[in-house]
UniProtKB/TrEMBL annotation:
Region (Disordered): 15-34
Record's protein name: SRR1-like domain-containing protein
Domain SRR1-like, chain residue ranges per copy: 124-297
The organism's place on the tree of life at top rank: Eukaryota
GO cellular component: cytoplasm; nucleus
One Pfam entry name: SRR1
Family to which this protein belongs: Belongs to the SRR1 family.
Polar residues composition-biased segments: 17-27
Amino acid sequence: MADVAKIDALKPDPCFTEQTKQNSVNKPSRKQRRQLKKLEQIQEQLEGEYTTDIQVESSTLDEYQYNIDKGWSVMGLQGQKTLQEKYSLKVAQQRITGAKEYLLTSKYYAEFLGTIYSRIKDIGNIKQVVCYGLGSLTQNTGNCVTSQVQLALLLLIIENLKSNIKQGEGPELQVSVYDPVFTEKDELVLQRFNIRVLTRHLDGAYEAVEPMLFYMPHCEGFLYEALYQANQKKLENLVVIGNNLAQYTSGRKSKYLTLAELVKENKVEMVEFPAEKLLGKGDYGEKHHPFNDTCLIATRREQSKV
């Protein structure tokens, strides 16, 4: 990590690039040329351990938009173009494992087990997990850290679910993910954690023929709408970790008719996740807001018994 710190220290002034654009006559100073040369040397030494893979691309993936003709795709890339770095596979895997260890020792996870996971266990024998909208795991940004923490919690949930499946009770737990922003490197990281990347995402309209967990924190409203619309007669099979549905059913978001009916008629219960302050202020803590406004959404107990 010391070498990585060297890279950061040796990076040229970000204003330098802008200055050269404004005045093409200016040339890099002797000091800047030395810095660039040292940076290139360190990058060559670290090849295979930490790849900068610098490229010009949008700095933010502001939102997903649903287009009926094109399906689920990433639209509206906004913001200034910046130089972005990518974690190597090894570093990304280490960070996800680190986030998992961080969660395990946190007050947040202790409360999660008591309030959220205990409710998941009540649902029944879940043997399929589908995760939508996780985000990139390899981009060196704040959003990437959020994705890594969210995946870390998912991995802990998977471990608990696997321990609850009794030997001889059918197939093992199947875990699948999809996000249109996934790169080839993201998919390789997920494979290392034995998670399969879906090739058919159905724009969220995944039919739950048996009890299933859908892990969807911070997804767009159309995905929740598509999921619940496809399972209106099978609500008892749906266990969703996602945003509070009420936020999608007021004002301009009232176009989500299925969600509006669920909320209005009180067909599902939404159990709020623990307060993010319990995550603490560490590298994987509350500052990244991985679980703000996140709930466990399931059919009400009395309704599921009918």
